[in-house]
User: Fold this.
Amino acid sequence: DVKVTQSSRYLVKRTGEKVFLECVQDMDHENMFWYRQDPGLGLRLIYFSYDVKMKEKGDIPEGYSVSREKKERFSLILESASTNQTSMYLCASSFAGENGYTFGSGTRLTVV
Amino acid sequence: QKEVEQDPGPLSVPEGAIVSLNCTYSNSAFQYFMWYRQYSRKGPELLMYTYSSGNKEDGRFTAQVDKSSKYISLFIRDSQPSDSATYLCATDNAGNMLTFGGGTRLMVKP
Assistant:
């Protein structure tokens, strides 16, 4: 069964910590995406990547960075976590030229 | 104005009812239309996929696109409690970049 795996389901971090959210896909997808999902705001795109070592800003990149050193892995980094980054984080992937995304199960991050 | 608008609900229906979920969009360049289903504490999963205007049926689910009015619908026949979830519509202009609606929460009561 093909899948997108996010390393943690639940995470609690302190304000100011550097936080790493990991996402791995086993479908050989070129495209990978990071979203956050908040009640009333829906899915908002943080960053995406079309290829290894490539990254593009989404709609809300402030306070985040990403890394894609290998095709199957796309990491989201919160440089200095803040309480307003408490959210559900969703990773997704797709083939180039196709727009059916496969999502991971999400990481619910709480920053205290 | 958001590019894709969706009533957040919640929409509560009895088991067996026909459910109609709807989205409107503003960008006439959108060509691909999708519906995702998201169960509580899970990631969204692709449910239906259509290209341009028309209908597509898959079991109890029918997706309908009316590009002239920029209106997307998902119909669920004989709704079941297991259909209780949040339904997200999504559109794409062939740029590999989806635009999502905010989601409609559906509750099907036994």
